[in-house]
Amino acid sequence: MASNKEMVVNSVNFEKQNGTNEINQKNRNKRLFTWKTVALICVINASLGLFGNGSFVGWTSYAMDGNLDETFTPQQKWHIFSVIGLTAALGPLIIHQIWHFVGSKRFILMANFLMVVAWILVMVFRENYLIFLVGRGIGGLAVGTLHFLIPLYIFDIVPVHQQPLCHSIMQLQFVLGILSQYILSLFKSFLIIDLLPAITSALLFITFFFMPESPRYLSIRGDAERANEILVKFKTDDRAVQNDLQLWTSAHHKVGYLSAFKEEFNIAYAIPVFGLYIFEQLIGAVPILFYLQNIFKLAACESVLSRVECEFTPEVSTILCVTVFVVSILVPHFFDDRSINIKVSLMWSTNVMAAILGVLGLYCHLHGSFAPNNFEDIRYIPLICLSLFYFLYATGPQRLSHEYAEKVIPKKCYFTMRCMLATTSWFLIYVITRMLPQLIGHIGVGWLFWFMAAMCVLMSVFVKLFVADLTKVPEESRLVDNSSESNSEA
């Protein structure tokens, strides 16, 4: 009799346990469905924002190619082309000072509004140098703001294992924005080139009204309950949610620039992080995108192609080159790169990039020294070399510099360090884009490629001397060195 009662009780308990598991599984499936839905919306919104940024950068290449008002002096044109980098560098600095009072969502909305205003000024006042320059400057401020805040907004709400893919998608959309401008330039109409990106920015401005506020900002402002509601919709790991909330709610003040180095960030890791970002820009991959069509012409592409029947004009070559760049961004995600050695991969990629640029520089010099007809059989060298260069850049320095920084920057000063890195990158882009026309005019495009090759070699040497091999450094040791056990940064 007793045995029968025990069997009944066990049966009831088993049914209750199964029922509880089914409920938990349903809740988990519901949460996963919510995560997939909202993640898709986030990717679309990020795509629109960074796609607009890329469009604003890619516009320069068409304008540089002799399509800007001829009443502007060369000096004025250089200012118009490069001012975007200077004002983009100011964006993160402004955000760092007042983000605690404004929040990510309002900043992103304001940035997209500024982007729409910038496109309108560029379209309407094309012949007025001062207003044209102001419009480009306003657009640059929006570019810097979106380029800094959208990744931060996404990384705060997506699971850690999804962040590398999200970063690649955002980089992809930025380059797609540049590619779209190169494709639209085939229509030879500034109206089409200006209007479509303006519509894209306006769409993001509208759709972002329906996005939630950053949980990081809500936690700092004391609304942890609302922040928790947002996080549980995105993340399925309850422990990760609680860790994030504890991290953000404990932040009472922002970490200053100097204190981030003096107290929070081990200098042994700060030097390689900043060095990688500096060399990534000195290589020139992003700055030459501002002038890529013109560079293909100067690389003797046009003079040779004019003598042969070939569909690869400088405009088409530019589109093909950037298309390779787009595809290359996603290539690493088709392979299991969790055990990749960042240091070794950076050294290999930069050395091969240097060799490719050296070959391209030699081609340009030989083409200038001998009859162009002798180069008809190898007329594709500029396209092949630059495509390989961008393939290696996308899979090497661009991706690995970011991954290295993600691994070693302590969360306590993550916001501050990311702000400084963004400002440093955009300021260097401004300096290089400002100097590029003069460099090409004085030393020639061949010497420009050799200069870029030298920067690749120097980056490889820097990686060898200063970048730590993280596969040999236990993660726990890095966390202790960087004081991340007491994280409380905004």
N→C terminal distance? 64 Å
- Strand percentage lies at under 5%
CATH class of the largest domain: Mainly Alpha
Shape summary: globular
Rg result? 25 Å
Please characterize this protein's 3D structure.
By secondary structure, the chain is mainly alpha-helical. It has two domains: 39-211, MFS general substrate transporter like domains (Growth Hormone, Chain: A, Up-down Bundle); 255-490, Growth Hormone, Chain: A (Up-down Bundle), CATH 1.20.1250. It has helices spanning 2-67, 74-102, 104-124, 129-157, 163-184, 190-207, 215-220, 224-234, 238-249, 257-264, 267-282, 292-298, 301-305, 314-330, 342-369, 381-395, 397-408, 414-466, 475-481. Helix 2 (74-102) packs parallel to helix 4 and helix 3 packs antiparallel against helix 6. The protein is globular and about 65 Å long.
